[in-house]
Inverse folding.
């Protein structure tokens, strides 16, 4: 586990990258948040991120987050960034403040109904496979309007924007394309539905510069902060 000092110095390096990328594209660094991804790491990592001033952390599995959350400060917010199976929708609503991985109209409707029944409201993002990568989750670009429409039907769901994971590739142009496709998709949806979709969750440790250039507002960063994950 990194010491608080190690984490602090990795954070300095990371924020330097974010500032530089913002400077290159004429963006205000305050318009991009860093969301620490604590998956596979012990709960202490999330508590450490909170101590460093991060208001939220992200996890990709419901059960893992449900185990860690009670061990962490109650003020810390938890965001789901991994694929959600419909039989875990209820547990996800109980465990997470934000669900970034809503990737079908069926899941949106189920989350909306269950949240309403439980008297909860939850922020959600629509996950779009904007890089058209068969290995990645997310709805197809063409399905995004139907998923958004299903989510908007439920007042218990506050749709904040879109999320994407770029295809793995040595060619940076592949990530560039996936990120600008997500932004274009957001622009079309916001205009078509007359809603504000301010959040673009895109970019991770390896491709955050490209994501900032394309307009990311949320960088989901794991390894650049916490080091390599234990291989599963
Ligand atoms: C693991 C994960 C990340 C963080 O990846 P790093 O390369 O470690 O920064 C970001 N987004 C999603 C959806 C992830 O599953």
């Amino acid at each position: 586990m990194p010491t608080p000092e190690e984490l602090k110095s990795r954070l300095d390096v990371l924020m330097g990258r974010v500032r530089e990328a913002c400077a290159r594209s004429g963006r205000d660094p305050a318009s991009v948040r860093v969301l620490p991804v604590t998956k596979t790491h012990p709960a202490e990592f999330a508590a450490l991120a909170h101590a460093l001033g991060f208001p939220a952390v992200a996890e990709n599995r419901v059960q893992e987050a449900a185990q860690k959350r009670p061990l962490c400060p109650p003020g810390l917010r938890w965001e789901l960034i991994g694929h959600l199976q419909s039989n875990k929708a209820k547990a996800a609503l109980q465990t997470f403040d934000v669900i970034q991985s809503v990737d079908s109209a069926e899941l949106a409707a189920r989350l909306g109904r269950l949240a309403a029944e439980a008297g909860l409201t939850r922020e959600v993002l629509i996950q779009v496979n904007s890089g058209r990568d068969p290995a990645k989750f997310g709805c197809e670009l063409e399905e995004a309007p139907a998923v958004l429409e299903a989510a908007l039907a439920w007042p218990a769901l506050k749709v904040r924007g879109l999320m994407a994971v770029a295809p793995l590739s040595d060619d940076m142009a592949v990530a560039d394309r996936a990120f600008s496709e997500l932004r274009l998709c957001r622009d079309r949806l916001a205009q078509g539905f007359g809603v504000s979709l301010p959040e673009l969750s895109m970019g991770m440790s390896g491709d955050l510069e490209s994501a900032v250039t394309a307009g990311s507002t949320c960088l989901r960063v794991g390894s650049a902060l916490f080091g390599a994950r234990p291989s599963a």
Remarks:
- Residues 34 and 57 are 9 Å apart (CA to CA).
